[in-house]
Amino acid sequence: MTGQFVLPLAFDLAATFFFAVTGGLTAMRKGYDFVGVFFLALVTGLGGGLLRDGLFLQQMPTVMEPHYLFAVLAAMGISLLFGETLNRFTVVFMLVDSLGLGLYAMVGTQKALNAGLSWVPAVLIGVINAVGGGVIRDLMTRDDPLVFRPGEFYAAAALCGSTLFAALVVGFQVPAQPAALAGITAILLVRVTSVRFGWKTRPARPLIRRRNDDGGV
Question: Is the pLDDT score of 134 beyond 60?
Fold first, then answer.
């Protein structure tokens, strides 16, 4: 890999904060107390990085630095202070969430490539880094993970961006910084365009269906 994609700390903390806010709001909708709000904000904001480092790369999780915990605490406070009022800012949350999705997908893919993995598992780790916090949040609240349900392009957007990044840096030897910007842009475009035009994924169906005796399907 030529060079490295360096994620500015301010962007990293902002993405952690906004992801954690979604976890805090989910906890409040579920009727959890303040302890539940904190832990759901924590796993939503930091879960993707914890899965990436602790489970897949087996490294010391970088997201356990104090400033990340402060971002989670700030998100918890904002959630408790404003509650459902924050849902009025749907467009803002969607844009920031999409940017965070792109940033974490690039960081996860790059860390996996730096650890010596080939591009296919690196792409998958990038996607897990991007969506892992939301998956843990949904599992803890006993909901079907949002990324597995038919709906807006989310994990699919992260997959597109991570694949583009890996293809550029591995296949075409493009420097990591412009390759990451291309991947983030692709994720933003897929997310925003799918929301704007109402593109949805659909439930999976078998391509070959068993025929009944009367000739029906």
Answer: yes
